[in-house]
Specification:
Layout lengths: L7 H18 L3 H5 L6 H9 L19 H12 L8 H12 L4 H12 L4 E5 L15 E5 L2 E11 L5 E10 L8 E7 L5 E5 L11 E11 L3 E2 L5 H37 L1 E2 L2 E2 L4 H29 L5 H25 L2 H4 L4 H10 L8 H19 L1
Parallel strand pairs: 1-4, 2-4
Antiparallel strand pairs: 2-3, 3-7, 4-5, 5-8, 6-7, 9-10
Helix pairs in contact: 1-4, 4-7, 5-7, 7-8, 7-9, 7-11, 8-9, 9-11, 9-12
Length: 384
Amino acid sequence: MLDFSFSEDHEEFQKTLSTFARRELLPGYTARSASSEFPFALLKKIGDLGVLGIGLPERFGGTGEDDPVLLGIASEALAYGDVNLASAPIQVGLVGAQLLHGTEEVQQRYLPPVIAGEENLAIALTEPESGSDASALRTTARRVAGGWLLNGEKTAISWAMSASAALIYAREEGTTRSSGVSCFVVDLASEGVAVRHMIGMGCLPLGWGSITLDGVFVPDSHLIGEEGRGFQVAMNHFDFSRAAIGLMCLGAAEQSLEEAALYATQRSTFGKPISEYQGVSFPLAEQATYIEGARWVCYRALWLRQQDRPHTSLASMSKWWAPVVAKDAIEASMKIHGNLGYSAEFPLQQRFRDVMAYLVADGTAEIQKGIISKEILARKTVSL
């Protein structure tokens, strides 16, 4: 028998985070999102709730048990209040999963403060000439006594401006494509590192920026995983982050739709609430339907990961479709609010711009559709 329900623990966790998001995060979301200052005080509160260590070892402050579904619930629920801060469990999950391939020294240095919400680490993969084709990166790592020298530039890196360190992906000179790419933890205060702010149309608190490396020395102890296999490790973890990102966007859309429904019952024209007009009520019904469908694609991808079953295609569906559904739902909510939906005093326009980033970030729709279609066509080839 199919079962689409969460466990009692999941349900309780969702209620706790939803309450926290709407009480603690939602009231200041609009003002925070207009600033490039990272809200570390709120990140610490989220850390205190145990949300930043999902699936990471207890000895570092994590939950211990690997639970991708719980990560999805956290991302969705926190986004009711602040879609930018809702990305924190995903970011820490990605960073932490990769740090577990590192040395004990690196794990002890970075995992406890990151899980506690006291420090941020960035993931620096994208480059000026290798965005979606991340395996074509040009940043180099040259072997020297006791470590490596890194040279290159990373761009459009989230959390760059608030991070104490970054996971830098670089290739050994002479290698091509994903072969030869290694991952290194680089302290952003190191000599030869320059970080520059890049202002976007949304997600300002996440500190979008570029990182330039000019002969930066990284000791052997800061190599993550096996030499030359950093790219493969990163790609494996992106499957769970893609579904969680989809749920994060949908959480922002769900909150927007709730606000639109409330407004529709309070705003009257021609002697009756605008909720009684099909031009208002039908868009609410349509967007709620799309959100519900997209949610379960995301949660099924996370459930399959938890069961250690193939889920790459569903993760890609989650990444391209859910942000589109969320954007459309927020846009519909803005229209229901009329001129107020366009006002900078209300959170709708801010959510719209913040969610728009995920139409591109972490893999465009075209890249995701390519992954999905490749799997579909592969099945046909096997059947022949």
